[in-house]
Amino acid sequence: MVDKEFSEEEKKHKEMAIDFFNYTWSLLDKEKRTIAEDDEMIHAAHASRFHWGKVGTPIHFERGEWQISRVYSVLNHPQPALYHAQRCLDICKENEIGDFDLAFAYESVSRAYAVASNEVEKKKFFELAQTAGEQIKETDDKDYFLSELKTI
């Protein structure tokens, strides 16, 4: 597959999307964050998704939605976590994105329902995530996914 040629403006969007995505991860990985860092994490995740929306593909869109949902789940904000988790899952289904990404889409919905204290939906999507996770082709990806699923 040949990468598309990007204009200078598109290159900047791509660079910013990647930088904000990685910055969000650095904040997610912190043991303790300040309220200001929590706010930055929300804004950075949305910024990454915004910039991918300008130059990305559906896989970038769904991964951005996944990250936003994860941020809101970590911060215990169930409604936006559910919204973005469902967007992630919808993008996967609409674009026939499977494997690792579909498994994480189901994981995201399950995690968001856990934050919302909805055990019935949490369990339903957990089981869908587990089934999808068992079908991940790459062993390292499967092992990583299953380890993440255990954290719900």
Number of strands: 0
The H/E string reads HHHHHHH
Cα radius of gyration in angstroms: 15 Å
Provide the helix percentage.
over 70%
Query: Distance between termini?
Result: 36 Å
Shape: globular
- The portion of residues forming beta strands comes to under 5%
Structural class call reads mainly alpha
* Poorly predicted ranges: none
Provide mean pLDDT, rounded.
Answer: 96
Query: How many helices?
Result: 7
Tally of structural domains: 2
Largest β-sheet summary: none
Please sum up the structure shown.
This protein has helices spanning 8-28, 35-55, 58-74, 78-94, 99-115, 119-134, 139-149. It has 152 residues and is mainly alpha-helical. The protein folds into two domains: 7-56; 61-152, no CATH class.
Describe this structure as you would to a colleague:
The protein has helices at 8-28, 35-55, 58-74, 78-94, 99-115, 119-134, 139-149. It is mainly alpha-helical. It folds into two domains: 7-56; 61-152, no CATH class. α2 (35-55) runs antiparallel to α3, α3 (58-74) runs antiparallel to α4 (78-94) and α6 (119-134) runs antiparallel to α7. The radius of gyration is 15 Å and the shape is globular. The N and C termini lie far apart (36 Å). The relative contact order is 0.10. The model has no long low-confidence stretch (mean pLDDT 96).
Write the layout of secondary structure elements.
Blueprint: H1 8-28, H2 35-55, H3 58-74, H4 78-94, H5 99-115, H6 119-134, H7 139-149
